[in-house]
Amino acid sequence: MWIAHFSDLHLTREGQALYGQVDTRAAFLAALARLRDLPLSVELLVISGDLAEGGEVEAYRFLRQALADLPVPVALLPGNHDCRATLGQVFPEQFATWQGPVLRLPLSQGALLLLDSAVPGREWGQVDASTLAALEASAGGPLLVAMHHPPFPVGIPGMDAIACRGSLDAFGQWLAGAAEGLLCGHVHRQVATQFHGVPARVAPSPAHQIALGPRALAYTMEPGGFLLHDWQPGQHLLTHWLPVQAAPLHFYPE
């Protein structure tokens, strides 16, 4: 099955450019257009947090309107920039079904566990004993897990300082015995690794990226994009990166 994976939209109010120059609304709409044009049968779109820059109701209403005619089910996760209460007002069908920090979402060949790692008022995330208990209670069958904060370092000091904290070894051990993949956001770059032997993927932002390197934390207008996961339970997770802007096809002669 194909699963599209967006992250870190940072949507703003109408007419407001993020940092005075990043049009996050236009980037998101371009990513949706690219998704619609894919010659694939996508089963789900996951957006792994930081949906709105300041958790503003206007930004969430824009998000809902933009997703209204998308012929693909959508699963939303909150990030450190989001307001869970406001998300619940604008997307009650999504957030009213949460029981604690984990929601199980059935798929055609397994299930996706949505894990809320956000800590209100903090940039970093957390996995604690209650999270582990909720994961255990939601386990069973082929699983992917999605969360906002990566529970592993990504090699960017400024982002590693606000990564996930808490019972990470216990979380990794649980993943190793229960899940076939981990999907994250937060970093604004594509990152691929393994966490306790489980394939882990971090999605870029459709808009701005975080600069790579040991310098002070900075953003860059490198091309935005999203991930497309081909998950066949029992097989290795296969992931493609797609830039937001498509390019013409040039067919080879037969």
Q: What topology does this entry show?
A:
Layout: E1 2-6, H1 24-37, E2 42-48, H2 57-67, E3 74-77, H3 84-90, H4 92-95, E4 102-107, E5 110-115, E6 125-127, H5 129-138, E7 143-147, H6 157-160, E8 164-166, H7 168-178, E9 182-184, E10 191-195, E11 198-202, E12 209-210, E13 219-220, E14 225-230, E15 238-243
Parallel strand pairs: 1-2, 2-3, 5-7, 6-8, 7-9, 9-11
Antiparallel strand pairs: 1-14, 4-5, 10-11, 12-13, 14-15
Keywords:
alpha/beta; five-stranded mixed β-sheet; globular
What does this structure look like?
There is one protein chain. The mean pLDDT is 95. By secondary structure, the chain is α/β, with parallel strands linked by helices. Strand 2, helix 2 and strand 3 form a beta-alpha-beta unit. Helix 2 (57-67) packs across helix 3 (84-90). It has helices at residues 24-37, 57-67, 84-90, 92-95, 129-138, 157-160, 168-178, and strands spanning 2-6, 42-48, 74-77, 102-107, 110-115, 125-127, 143-147, 164-166, 182-184, 191-195, 198-202, 209-210, 219-220, 225-230, 238-243. It has 7 helices and 15 strands. It is globular, with a radius of gyration of 17 Å.
